[in-house]
Amino acid sequence: MKIKLIVELGIGLLVGIVLVAIGAFVFKQPYTYQGSLIDPPAPTSDFTLKANGGTTFQLSEQHGKIVLLFFGYTRCPDVCPTTLYDFKQIKASLGEQADEIRFVFITVDPERDTIDLLGQFVTAFDSDFIALSGELDELQPVYAAYGVYRQKNDVGSAAGYLMDHTARVYVIDPNGNLRLTFPFGMAPEAMTEDIIHLLKE
Amino acid sequence: MPPSFRPYAHRLLIVFLVALVFVGIINEGAHLLLKDKNDRAPEMIEIIIPAGTADEIAAGEAPISLPKELTFVIGDTLRVKNEDHTDHELGPLYVPAGSSASLQMEDANKYTLGCTFTPSKFLNFDVRTRTTAISRLQAFALATPPTAMFFFVYSLLVFPLKQKNKIDMPLQSAD
């Protein structure tokens, strides 16, 4: 009697698990991006800037890869190091898939950020991170194309002025279109999930 | 279970069932009576930036009529559709010309966000919590045990349990 009861309970449990699995598959919700989705994806303006390592970086040459673009400066006390650390965590979480991603840091303070200084700054987080700079007249069109705000803020510090600047991350898909933006403070895990979904598309 | 505990267990089961019904009625009744318009399921809320907005803002005009404060509940999605010829921004949202950007409200708080499509350059958001089925179930689960214990103690005072006498003493004749 007891054995029969146990068998019946086991079958019932198995049927329940199968039904739940079928239900989860049939009623699966489409993925909802956690960053800000740009719909339809917006074409991006191409640009070519000096990169660390003595090379140049052209955005259109990155087709086929996802580009995470961030605008900051080396003397930034909080936002920029935090974002680069988030990039580092994202890269680690992606594993081999990180080969499909380009992590790009463009300076908003070309007066003080030499390309060597930028290179040292970003590669301290990861040797594959790319830092870009140029003359102000080369950078201005890039700032304008991405709606980047930058403003000198003289706080009277011995370290010099601070730069108030746009803090979002721009996500450019493999087709070269602006697809997502991640606001500052978004969890790296959430950004990673969005990137993984974008890679699957 | 010792036989002496059985009547108490029986009584406890009955008052627990009574407490379940009682708490359920109070819980759901309060929810129905006190529900406000913001206690709703998440929605998609769309703001459209019409063509020419940037030019009109520069001229000091207000092309879009928006309330001073927008109210959302957690889970709402704000979609800003940009029909203008220039890019616009709303707080963390960057909305390219001819496209739209959306953002889900995840944290309850009051925000003042920079906005490029209002003359004041700011827009206030109020993101509120909402009553969900889970929160109602949690309230129900938290209220039922103490209510059941209160009913149990009260029932013992008002309707005391009679213990059966197990040992029958033989009657002694009076000599």
Give an overview in words.
The complex is a heterodimer of chains A (201) and B (175). Chain A is α+β, with helices and mostly antiparallel strands. Chain A contains 5 helices and 10 strands; from the N terminus they run αββββαβαβαββββα. Chain A folds into 2 domains: 1-30; 36-200, Glutaredoxin (3-Layer(aba) Sandwich), CATH 3.40.30. Chain A has an 8-stranded mixed beta sheet with strand order 1-10-9-4-5-6-2-3, with helices on one face. Chain A is elongated, with a radius of gyration of 23 Å. Chain B has helices at residues 6-34, 53-58, 133-158; strands at 44-49, 69-73, 77-82, 88-90, 93-95, 100-104, 109-114, 122-128. The model of chain B has no long low-confidence stretch (mean pLDDT 86). In chain B, β7 (109-114) and β8 (122-128) form a beta hairpin. Chain B has a 3-stranded mixed beta sheet with strand order 1-3-6, with no helix packed on it. In chain B, strands 2-8-7 form a 3-stranded mixed beta sheet, with no helix packed on it. Chain B has 2 domains: 3-35 and 132-158, no CATH class; 44-128, Cupredoxins -  blue copper proteins (Immunoglobulin-like), CATH 2.60.40. In chain B, α1 packs across α3 (133-158). Chain B is built from 3 helices and 8 strands; from the N terminus they run αβαβββββββα. Chain B is α/β, with parallel strands linked by helices. Chain A binds chain B through residues 32, 34, 36-42, 146-147, 168, 170, 178, 181, 183-184, and chain B through 87, 89, 91-104. β1 (36-43) of chain A pairs antiparallel with β6 of chain B, so a sheet runs across the interface.
